[in-house]
Amino acid sequence: KREAGGKLRSIPVRLLFNDPGLNLRADYSLFDRDTGRPVCVGNGETSRRMGNEGVDAQPCPGPDTCRFADGLCKVYARFNVVIVEGDDDTLGSFVLRTTSFNTIRTLAARLQYFSAVSGRRLACLPLELKLRGKSTTMSYRTAIYYVDLVVRSGLTLEQAIEEARELAQRRQASGFDQAALDEAARQGFANGA
Fold first, then answer.
1. pLDDT tens across 87-113, in order?
2. Maximum Cα–Cα distance for the chain, whole Å?
3. Are strands 94-98 and 24-31 parallel, antiparallel or unpaired?
4. What is the 3-state secondary structure (H, E, C) of 21-62?
5. Which of 85, 104, 88 is nearest to 96 (CA)?
6. CA quadruple 15, 16, 21, 24: dihedral sign
7. Distance (Å, rounded) from C-alpha 75 to C-alpha 87?
8. For 131-149, how does the pLDDT look when each residue is reduced to its tens digit (9 = 90+)?
């Protein structure tokens, strides 16, 4: 949806997977500034780092205390969604890439909440991405924008859950195997590592 002035503020979406961790993947990343390729990717405990001999497993102390990254490591997330309007590829997805801690924290919490209240039917919920702004004393009262995930405009949470339940039943009746799709994605992401 566009607000007055033509700025895009929300996008109707569905998620690809029922597993929250497949929709939003976040880790610490250090990128080579020349090539844009990741040099080191970690989770706060272990990392995969490019070395002279290929990829090495290393301890990951996190971005604040990593001497290798020298302060250049950031949290980096990829959020996969299906844009509902205008895209005919049912399994095609848009990937929102972000280093915004506010966006990552908000999306992670929303995914867990929506998964719980929908009976783990995330892939069937009618949702929308919404750009929000806030200001704090840390931002010197300057607006900070982040992305939120909410029930699609015009629906209550109860209506969205009912729509998700009905869509899940239709998909299952047609032979759509959501559990197999989630497992295929899990294996694919593991192969990427």
1. 566 667 899 999 999 999 999 999 999
2. 55
3. unpaired
4. HHHEEEEEEEECCCCCCEEEEECCCEEEEEECCEEEEEECCC
5. 104
6. negative
7. 30
8. 999 887 776 778 889 999 9
Q: What is the DSSP string of 89-109?
A: -TT--EEEEE--HHHHHHHHH
Task: Extract the tokens encoding 61.
Answer: 């102390």
Q: Which residue has the tokens 């049912």?
A: 90
Nearest to 106 by CA among 150, 148, 163: 148
Rg (CA), the chain: 19
Tokens of 160: 């969205």
Distance from C-alpha of 164 to C-alpha of 55, rounded to nearest angstrom? 42
Q: In angstroms, rounded to a whole number, what is the distance separating the alpha carbons of residues 11 and 76?
A: 22
> Do residues 8 and 145 make contact, with C-beta atoms less than 8 angstroms apart?
no
Structure token digits, residue 36: 């844009």
Q: What is the value of pTM for the model shown?
A: 0.84
Choose among 193, 189, 192: nearest CA to 48. Answer: 193
Element (H, E) at 181: helix 178-192
